[in-house]
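Q: What does the assembled structure look like for these inputs?
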Amino acid sequence: MKEYDVLIIGGGITGVGIARDCAMRGLRTILVERQDLTNGATGRNHGLLHSGARYAVADPDSAAECIKENRILRRIAANCVEPTGGLFVTLPGDDVGYAGTLMKACHRAGIDAKEIDPAEAIRLEPALNKSAVGAIKVPDASIDPFRLATANAVDARLHGATILTYHEVVQLLRENGSIVGARLRQLDSGEMVTVRAAVTVNAAGVWGQKIAGMADVPLTLLPSKGSLLIFGHRVAKMTLNRCRKPASADILVPGDVVSVLGTTSSKVSIEECDNIRVTSAEVDELLQEGCALAPILAQTRVLRAYAGVRPLYSASNDPTGRSVSRGITIIDHELSDGLHGFITATGGKLTTYRLMAEQVSDMVCQKLKIRRRCRTADKPLPGSEKDFFPAEGNLSRKAAAMRHGTRSSQMDFDSKSEVLCGCEHVTRAEIAYAVKNLDVHNLVELRRRTRVGMGTCQGSFCMGKVATALAEELGRPEDADRLVAQYVQERWKGIAPVCWGESLREAEYMRKLYRK
Amino acid sequence: MRCDVVIIGGGLAGLTAALELQRAGRRCVVVAGGMSLHETPRAAFIAAGGVFLRGDFVKRGEWKGSRLLRVWTRNLGSEPIEAKDFILATGRFFSKGLASTMDEIYEPIFGCDVRYDKDRSAWVNTDFFGPQPFEEFGVETDGCGHAMIHGVAAENLYAAGEILCDRKDIEQSALAVCRNII
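A:
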């Protein structure tokens, strides 16, 4: 049995952020995740690096955190961030007073917001609703959550952390009023593993409620489902927000070769979270609202729909959920429940993950009686150390540099130059690198690490050859068919809710290609 | 242009019908938009004197009551093709025999009646490899293979192949239509 200083449960952005921070402070760190990294809300959101403007009016503290972290992430995660800028747009019928309120709130929070002429906004973004009556420019950006989480995990490992994916916590170990580790079950083999740690951090997102249950401490989360649509083009260069109180489908974020529209917001039960699906009604709602912001969306192909679940926290004395904050929540169960060695981190946002990880790691260090300063805001993530974009080189090298930053120099473009995914320009060299360095065992994981199959064709045309290449790199060439079947089934989950028009055409084609 | 039968679609159903009708002495024109994978039957059809309009699409038809008189294609422009009988064998969604929006599934050339579920969420099965409802949707016909339009069977427009609503064998459905024409 291995002994650690800290055990982190959950491989979302919060968990890997904490793992990186703790490992950089020299703690013996282990992170365990039931599925693949980024499998929950981390991989199912807008990919928006908030300026904080969206929260400025209602939640000024979160807004101030957002803008501070926004600046830090541009610096430390340069190859995960695309500095698109953002617009808040007032449409006819929206409360015209809100723009003024938003401007004041942004300035109070330290967000560089600037009112511009609506005609200028339409010149900048021709896809915008031409009847816009007001526009505010803010420093929003798009951020790739897969890349960000992967870079954090890579850095945690480089600093000595252990990361175990596909290991589910089945029991927390308790000794003398203290949590001292966990029993894990390896998902495929069923093998049981025991991990001992001085401090255990529950960063399991919406599943954190179950983990807290294993520790017999109360934790009431209000799982909130958010559905989004991916469109097959970048219809705008900047992130487009509706200038009004936050509501459904009022943010459109460009990222890589697509645009993401979202989100809806509805309560779901904790039981539903393992198999969340987007409904037709949600698709209709998203399209209707999205078209008000950018009418061109009505003619733009919807590639897929997906949904994540926000782990909103509610103080247990408020079952109505009125006091629900979207801010960072860190619970020291020693103070709240008299249980030593157990911390829950929940709530928060992708944009503020690093700050949340810093606060959790501070608490861990305090419990361990170690004084070490957080360095995650100063030290760039792997890949972003210096200017990562090659001035020279072909498209393959450039596409890989966009995704992996300086680490793309480790890829063998000379002998593995074949482009296997044409939409996203992924070469065999990148696949080999991902297998070797980024915990890739199947096509679903490969997609998250490299964007293979995330483009317009959704893998319809390339997955046969990608699977063959991956199976070979894994040393299991006979596995190619099984990998394809698993991938297609997973993709179908996102295509099925938006299966009409060109997507229905392609679905029929996919069936002819891949059905046994 | 004038012939006995215009076959719209140059896939397996269209070419099966074309060869069969040719054998029975009918002069056939095949209008084949999109991909044609069936090189051998296509070559046989042409060698026996058939007209194969590759990469052409029927845009519209002219009706007299429930009788189709002639059709216009994209490439022939203002020159229509007249025939006694017409076979619609344009396939399903991939080959554009059927088209869809968020709200409906339709047959884009003649507006034939399409059988499908009005509830969009029932178009697909969440198990990709299981039976897919959208593959059961298609044009409705009477007992003799005539396409239905607004609830009335067209006199001389038949439907064959994958475009049909009940999944029949592609070649058998084409041969059945030929028997009705001959």
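Chain A has a mean pLDDT of 93.
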